[in-house]
Design a protein that fits this description.
237 residues, mainly alpha
Length: 237
C-alpha cells in the first residue's frame, strides 16, 4: 500500500518492510513444520510474532491509511481481491488432496486489511471521539468472543464468532482487528498531521533502510508471491 504523498515517509515504509520480512521468516518455518519432514522448534520470539505480528501489520495499515486523502476504497478492493485469490488457491489445494484443511485461508490478513480500508473510507468522516470509542468496543468485543463464545454457524468467522472446532491457516476477524486499524488511523492523524517524516536521520539513506523501504513499498506483491513459493519449496523438502 502506497501513501498519497509526494514525499514518502520513510520510517513507515521501513516499518512495513520489517513486518513483511518477519512474515516471510515465520511462514517459511510454518510451511517447513507442516509440509516437510523437518521438525521446527518455536522460540518465544517467533511465537510472539505469530500471536501479535499480524495485529501490528493491521494497526500499521490503519496508520498509513490515515495519511491518504483518497483512494482508500480503490486500494481496499485491490487488497481484498488479492485475499480472495489466496482463498481460492488454498481451497483448490485442499480439495485436490495435496494438503489438509489447515492450509485453508478463509479470512486472512489481506481480507481484513482490504475490508478495513473500505470501511475506513466511510468511518473516517465520523468525529475522532466516536472513532476511538468504536475502536475500543470492537477490540473488546473481539477478544471477549474469542475467549468466551463459540457458535454453530460456519459462516460468522469473519466477524470473530467461531465454531468449534475451527481450522484455518490465517484468520484475522473484523472484531477485534477493525478496532486496531481504527486506532492506527487515529495515531497517524496525530503523529503525521503535517504528512512529513518524524525521523529525519541520515540512516534512511543506508542500504539496510533502502532495502526495508523497498520491501515495505512492495509488501502486497511480496506477500502474494511468497505464499505459493514457500508452499512448493516446503513440499519439495
Amino acid at each position: 500500500m502506497k501513501l498519497d504523498t509526494k514525499k514518502r515517509i520513510w520510517e513507515l515504509d521501513a516499518a512495513r518492510g520489517i513486518a513483511i520480512i518477519c512474515v516471510l521468516i515465520f511462514h517459511a518455518f510454518y510451511f517447513l513444520d507442516h509440509n516437510s519432514s523437518l521438525i521446527i522448534t518455536w522460540s518465544p520470539f517467533w511465537y510472539g510474532i505469530k500471536q501479535y505480528g499480524g495485529t501490528f501489520f493491521v494497526f500499521l495499515s490503519g496508520l498509513c491509511a490515515s495519511l491518504s486523502s483518497k483512494n482508500n476504497y480503490k486500494r481496499g478492493f485491490v487488497v481484498l481481491g488479492c485475499g480472495f485469490v489466496l482463498t481460492i488457491a488454498s481451497f483448490a489445494i485442499f480439495l485436490s488432496g495435496l494438503d489438509n484443511e489447515t492450509i485453508r485461508i478463509q479470512w486472512g490478513v489481506l481480507h481484513m486489511i482490504g475490508f478495513a480500508m473500505i470501511a475506513y473510507g466511510a468511518l473516517r468522516k465520523l468525529p475522532d471521539w466516536i472513532q476511538l470509542l468504536l475502536a475500543i468496543v470492537i477490540i473488546g468485543l473481539g477478544y471477549y468472543w474469542l475467549l468466551n463464545v463459540r457458535v454453530e454457524s460456519q459462516w460468522l468467522f469473519p466477524l470473530g464468532l467461531r465454531p468449534y472446532p475451527f481450522y484455518t491457516f490465517d484468520c484475522f476477524p473484523i472484531c477485534p482487528h477493525l478496532g486496531w486499524f481504527l486506532l492506527g488511523g487515529q495515531l497517524g492523524k496525530r503523529l503525521y498531521k503535517n504528512k512529513e517524516s518524524l525521523l529525519k536521520w541520515k540512516c534512511k539513506d543506508s542500504r539496510v533502510a533502502k532495502l526495508l523501504c523497498f520491501c515495505g513499498r512492495n509488501s502486497l506483491i511480496i506477500y502474494m508471491l511468497h505464499m505459493p513459493l514457500f508452499y512448493v519449496i516446503a513440499n519439495l523438502i
